[in-house]
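By way of example, what follows is a protein record of this kind.
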Amino acid sequence: MTTAQLDEFEKLLEESFTSKLSVADVVRGQIVKKENDGYLVDIGAKSEGFLPVREIPASMVDELKIGDCKEFYILKEDEDEKSGMLLSLKRVACAQAWQILQNAKISGETVFAKVVSLVKGGVIVEVQDLRGFIPASQLRTGMPFDGLMNQEIEAKVLEADAKRNKLILSQRQALAEQREQLVDEVISNLEVDQIVEGEVVRIADFGAFIDINGVDGLLPISEISWQRIKHPSDVLTLGQKIEVKVLKIDDDLKRISLSLKRIGDNPWEEIEDKFKEGEIITGTVNKVTSFGAFINIFPGVEALLPVAEMKDPEANPFDVYKNGEEVKVLIKKFTPQEHRIALSVKDINE
């Protein structure tokens, strides 16, 4: 072979290495050497490609080893003299992850998502090394709370758009499907008056939802405490574990009604022998309204002091009484069986 022919052969050989590979191609290669800041990879080119640590998915960082064969995405050509091409495993994993999530959306399968951040309007989750968003309306709790951080939750894929980098999921849809499968079994194992342990999973103005073995039961605000409360959140917090009593089971509607206050003693029964009509006692103002003031006379028991029975019926009750103030009152009517006690201050003065 002449010198000219040899030069031509070397030129063709060099072109054969480089002409088939370009930026954005996916090529199969083998990891051949570990460097301080990455790996050298044999991809069949004239020189090894270089895989920086920053281009390795977090889930694979500790798993890579010499000899592994994988598919690599070509980021750049001739990055420097040390490495012929700059490679990425993240790009390949990212494309595969989007495809997995798109398939999950189509099939309706659930995925596991790790909560990594609480933001206004929902939570940021990590799925297949991708970041996604679960709106508050699609959370079981209806709102994000600290107890969700770093938790893995099941969710349905609502939207998976790789081009727009948009991943939206729903925890509520995943749970709704599970509930249909669980509800009959859970309800069949419950009885009225049974005391069970549950977790507070949602708080609303009218009460709280308690998870009982995967099925939500309703704890109405009226069944939270014997004492008057303004909102369920005054007593309960999301994620809190509590014991509740089963009040009612509706087999047709698949609903469970619960009570927290009925686990303890009924204070209205306790006071039957403690007070009597005509007795003067000291109570604490619990709430002031336009028609009177509610006075706490025993833990869990409120009695009404109507405006007409105040010292000055013409005065504005909000000017006369303040929450937390101690007052002397006379028990004018005492019917604990009906959960009613009427008070008077005017009759004390008279």
The helical segments are 3-18, 90-107, 171-188, 267-270, 317-320, 346-349. The chain has four domains: 26-88, 106-173, 189-263, 269-349. The chain has a mean pLDDT of 87.
